[in-house]
Amino acid sequence: MLPLETVGAGGKVARARALAASLAALRSGGVEGVMVDVWWGVVEREGPRRYDWEGYGELVRMVERAGLRLQMVMSFHQCGGNVGDSCNIPLPGWVLEEMKSNPDIVYTDRSGRRNPEYISLGCDTLPVLKGRTPIQVYSDYMRSFRDTFCGYLGNTIVEIQVGLGPCGELRYPSYPEANGTWRFPGIGEFQCYDKYMRASLQQAAAAAGHEEWGRGGPHDAGEYKQFPEETGFFRRDGTWCTEYGDFFLGWYSGMLLEHGDRVLAAAEAVFRGTGAALSAKVAGIHWHYRTRSHAAELTAGYYNTRRRDGYAPVAAMLARRGAVLNFTCMEMRDEQQPEHAGCSPEQLVRQVRSAARAARVGLAGENALERYDEAAFAQVVATAASAGLGAFTYLRMNKKLFDGDKLAPVRVVRQGHGRRRRAGRRCPAATPSSRTSTSGSSRRGRRRRPRRPPPPPSCSMEASFVAPPLLCIGTVLRAPGKGSVYMIMRGVCRLQSFIVSN
Q1: Which residues pair with 279 in a beta bridge?
Q2: Beta carbons of 13 and 58 less than 8 angstroms apart
Q3: Marked catalytic residue, from 44, 169, 297, 331
Q4: Residue stretches of the annotated binding site
Q5: Rounded to an integer, what distance in angstroms lies between the CA atom of residue 42 and that of residue 482?
């Protein structure tokens, strides 16, 4: 991933010369492409439907010149207040003004805390943004993006990741770190107390024949920093496994799924026929996974317990919209987690992999935290082999990535089992494509990506190792005369592309 502030609050590319050099270095090392957030708060900052794509246009051209590909994230959330956030990019000013006049358009917890990270899904279909619904606003934004960059879609811009919530993930903001509200491994809190969510809950409760269930969320669900056994709702045989618990969790998770489906339906309509793939990110909430209730997942909107698979419905929804499931925490191992937190990222990844396979939806991955050590990357390679990843996005590109001492242990897959020439086919992610631009674009005619130069011939391979059968060999390349170590991946196998992202 590129740095979060690659295109800053003023709409300009930050440190353009340094970025161009970094892109060239990544390309010479064999990296497929990069990912960047396309911030709503940057592009539409001047007012409704006043889009400024200038900085992103410059970035797209830089990536094209470097011979790389680009994943672009439609980031409808704010940057700031979460793990790894290195800058502050709020939602557009005119949206913040609407929030001041109507605070209920943002997520709200039981204590009345408002969270301005993302607009509440409770008002998805209501004209709360100067006469437009949030879904209409997102759709208009994506349509403007498509019309501006249609000449690049399908060749340089190969994927559109659609933001669906805080941090771009399909979830509720149940564990906000801002102002010390939440701390790992707290269970988080339900975010269903704005007037629009409460109205929906009341309607669902009445339909279920229990109007008393519509008065609010569970009264015994505890607070952000608590553990499951400290609450009546999440403890071993708590309220979560009662008829009421099933009703509430079904409604809460169902609202999230409907939101994801609505936004992805809009994206599908906008980008159909452009050649760019769609994807959506699902959060890797691995703490308290070993408990019966999976409390942290429940407050985030994933109705996943020891008795119920909460990721199968998510995968099925993504499959209906033709979107790849992008999952985090691929670098984590169970043994590295604190015992008291009940973590199991490895079991969680296996469960999500099974859900994706059953739904026949593509699966991609990324690391949840910045890691530059050998153990983390070895886990990524092992996970890629077993999970059948179509792509892996590495978080993130910064100075550490080009520090030889930090990156030296990292081995990226170079050669698939049985070798590419025996496979007799090329992976889709490695095949350049071109398309004819549609009307309305400032770039017309047929565009083809420039031929990619081969890696520098004087590079030397170091520290290769035998990986699981599907991946086989990993290598690190060192550029001649430089102290930086660059990553390379060649060949097919299940892991089709390696993307550097933020």
Answers
A1: 161, 324
A2: yes
A3: 169
A4: 37, 77, 85, 281, 286, 328, 367-368, 396
A5: 36
Q: Give the length of the chain.
A: 502
Q: Which CATH class is domain 7-107+117-187+257-411?
A: alpha beta
Residue 98 annotated as catalytic: no
Feature table: binding site for substrate: 37, 77, 85, 281, 286, 328, 367-368, 396
* Catalytic entry in 159, 331, 346, 366: 366
Distances (CA, A) of 412 to 71, 170, 336, 382, 455: 19, 29, 22, 11, 15
Q: How far apart are CA 198 and CA 387, in angstroms?
A: 39
- How far CA 268 is from CA of 96, 179, 278, in Å, comes to 27, 37, 8
- What is the rounded end-to-end Cα distance, in angstroms, of the chain? 3
Based on its alpha-carbon atoms, the radius of gyration of the chain, rounded to whole angstroms, reads 23
Residue ranges of the domains in the chain? 7-107+117-187+257-411
Phi–psi pair at 235, nearest 5 degrees: -65, 175
Q: Is 372 exposed, middle or buried (0-12, 13-18, 19+ CB in 10 A)?
A: middle
**In whole angstroms, how far apart are CA 222 and each of 217, 230, 295, 301, 377?**
11, 7, 10, 16, 36
- Do 260 and 164 contact (CB within 8 A), yes or no? yes
Q: CA 236, CA 258: separation in Å to the nearest integer? A: 29
- Counting DSSP H helices and E strands in the chain, the numbers are 13, 16
Residue 463, helix vs strand vs coil: strand
Could you tell me the two tokens for 89? 């990019």
Q: How far apart are CA 189 and CA 207, in angstroms?
A: 25
Give the C-alpha separation, 224 to 207, whole Å. 30
Q: What region does 309 belong to: left with phi over 0, alpha with psi -120 to 50, or beta?
A: beta
Encode pLDDT of 246-256 as tens digits: 999 999 999 99
Q: What is the C-alpha separation between 407 and 488, in angstroms, rounded?
A: 12
Report the interhelical angle of 243-271 vs 195-207 (nearest 10°): 120
Does residue 414 carry a pLDDT above 90?
Answer: no
The strand pairing partners of 114, in sequence order, are 108
130 φ/ψ sector (left φ>0, alpha ψ -120 to 50, else beta): left
Quote the percentage of the chain above a pLDDT of 70.
73
User: Does residue 169 have an active-site annotation?
Assistant: yes
The 10s digit of each residue's pLDDT in 8-55 is 999 999 999 999 998 988 888 778 889 999 999 999 999 999 999 999
Measured from the Cβ of residue 431, the count of other Cβ atoms closer than 10 Å reads 9
pTM of the model: 0.81
Q: Identify whether the C-beta of residue 234 lies closer than 8 Å to the C-beta of residue 221.
A: yes
pLDDT(435) > 60: no
Cβ-contact 259, 313 below 8 angstroms: no
Pairing of strands 277-282, 106-108: unpaired
Task: Compute CA 378 distance to the chain's CA centroid, rounded to the nearest angstrom.
Answer: 22
Q: Which residue type is seen at 196?
A: Y
Closest alpha carbon to 78 in 155, 178, 1: 178
